[in-house]
Design a protein that fits this description.
The chain has 9 helices and 7 strands. With about 210 residues, it is of the alpha+beta class.
Length: about 210
């Protein structure tokens, strides 16, 4: 495939722009460098965001979710995002130490449009901030303070094409390899997949926060 593809690679901006043409006016007008009050409503309606970061080993994208409005808007420039309990790989946080630039993609269940925010993040352990994000009596380890630099909505085409919110297309989890199966295979049976799968529901509930 790589040999067949070589003559068709686009390697410069002039060729790329000639292929795609100019963006429509609306595609440019929707972008601002602050969190407009309408964009704030989209942030506050979202229970799920993908956090993209850049580190010495490359790019990373991490899913984040909590009850609706879990990403808090402090002002037109600032967002707060709690770092909840996870697997302690802390890939995103390691990357932010290396490079503060981040990108956020907000999804809202049932809504076609998504919201994109690019900015810069710092990691805080301020007790006052941590307390604001207490859930089920548990505090996050850190809170990301994100300064927005670029904010705009993404049109609904990707969601509509994928039919992401269509219940008729929901996938039965049992039709895919379980996490235990994956772990047992990749660990050369050092991890007991059946036991991992059996223990997982209770472990997830106990370690949610």
């Amino acid at each position: 495939m790589s040999e067949l593809d070589t003559p068709h690679r686009i390697t410069d901006l002039q060729a790329l722009e000639a292929l795609y043409g100019s963006p429509a006016s609306a595609s440019l007008k929707k972008e601002v460098d602050y969190i407009h009050r309408y964009y704030r409503k989209l942030v506050e309606a979202s229970p799920f965001v993908v956090l993209a970061t850049n580190g010495p080993d490359g790019l990373d994208a991490s899913p984040r979710g909590d009850p609706t409005g879990f990403v808090r808007v402090c002002d037109e420039e600032t967002l707060l995002l709690a770092d909840r309990r996870g697997n302690n790989r802390i890939d995103s946080l390691r990357n932010i130490i290396h490079d503060p630039r981040v990108a956020l993609l907000f999804l809202i269940p049932g809504v076609g449009e998504t919201l994109r925010i690019n900015g810069e993040a710092t990691i805080s352990t301020d007790p006052t901030l941590l307390e604001q994000f207490s859930l089920q009596g548990k505090l996050p380890s850190t809170v990301l303070i994100i300064k927005a630099k670029k904010v705009f909505f993404q049109c609904s085409r990707a969601i509509l094409r994928s039919r992401l919110w269509d219940p008729a297309l929901h996938v039965e989890r049992a039709s895919l390899p379980s996490t235990g199966t994956i772990l047992e295979t990749l660990s050369n049976a050092e991890i007991d997949g059946n036991k991992y799968d059996a223990d997982l529901p209770e472990r997830v509930q106990k370690t949610m926060y």
